[in-house]
Design a protein that fits this description.
Arc Repressor Mutant, subunit A; 3-stranded antiparallel β-sheet; 13 helices; 17% strand
């Protein structure tokens, strides 16, 4: 039954092509939209005078049958250039992640990768969104939605530290280096090992420290502020951290010692300057001792 319906859709679009203007042909749209949603197609067709849902369905079925588009998941497609093999064509995973929801923002380790500062490449991409979205898998990559920190939602500041980069028809939103720096330390469990986090952050040559402090104030997590302060104290010369920044950070740290990693409470040591109980592997950078 499904096969018969697909054939009917193809016949419908062939008939449609003979009756409508070329403005309804999706080739121009596909050439400028690497990844797109059904709503994107609906908007494009409406601009060209067609609001008939059957036209949209027939066009999508036709181009899918010709190998010009491939489904990522329900309602989301990737374009395939002419003469490319739809079964093997490589689709930019950053663009796919950016279209997972209407408000998707590349974040955490994925933002590090996008900025070119990740120590390792992951097949797991993370994005933040206010909308629930199931984990998706496409072309060897896994796409995982994470919630926006509650403190940012409550203060109406979820937009802080986000840059928008138009690319191949997609408004790709990604956290900037300052927010990424804080976010990765705020939720280290989604960004890999401490070695991965430390080596990645150490590849960043400059932070706008005023932005870092301002974002920490909005985030409102004392433990995260202590982690940031501890990292900056380890790299004060390389990152040119001034005493004013340290004073601002110390006003945000916890009053009592907090564990840097609550899942690992053995083999740690208190760094009193930041009221932070730090794992030995971070203090001693044990990964550098492995031959």
């Amino acid at each position: 039954m499904a096969e018969q319906q697909e054939k009917a859709n193809i016949i419908s679009i062939m008939s449609l092509n003979s009756r409508v203007s070329s403005s309804l042909n999706l080739n121009a749209f596909l050439a400028t939209h690497a990844v797109f949603t059904v709503d994107d197609v609906r908007g494009y067709l409406a601009e060209h005078g067609s609001v008939n849902p059957n036209t949209r369905k027939a066009l999508l079925a036709y181009h899918r049958s010709r190998g010009r588009i491939v489904p990522v998941r329900r309602g989301l497609y990737a374009s395939v250039p002419l003469n490319a093999d739809p079964a093997t064509y490589s689709v930019d995973p950053f663009l796919v992640a950016a279209k997972m929801t209407d408000d998707a923002v590349l974040a955490y380790h994925t933002a590090l990768e996008y900025h070119g500062n990740a120590y390792s490449g992951y097949n797991r991409l993370t994005y933040v969104s206010a909308f629930r979205s199931p984990t998706a898998r496409f072309r060897g990559h896994e796409y995982v939605r994470l919630s926006i920190p509650q403190a940012l939602l409550e203060s109406g500041c979820s937009h802080l530290g986000i840059a928008t980069n138009p690319q191949d028809g997609v408004d790709l939103r990604v956290t900037n280096l300052e927010r990424t720096f804080v976010d990765v330390l705020d939720r280290p469990n989604v960004s890999g090992s401490w070695e991965e986090i430390w080596r990645s952050l150490e590849s960043i040559e400059f932070f706008d420290l005023e932005q870092v402090v301002a974002y920490l104030r909005r985030l409102g997590n004392a433990t995260t502020a202590a982690k940031v302060g501890f990292f900056l104290s380890q790299h004060r010369d390389a990152l040119m951290v001034d005493e004013g920044t340290f004073d601002a950070l110390k006003a945000l740290v916890p009053k009592q010692p907090h564990y840097m990693d609550r899942s690992s409470r053995t083999g740690c040591r208190l760094v009193s300057e930041w009221n932070l109980v730090v794992p030995r592997e971070v203090l001693e950078r044990s990964w550098e001792q492995i031959l």
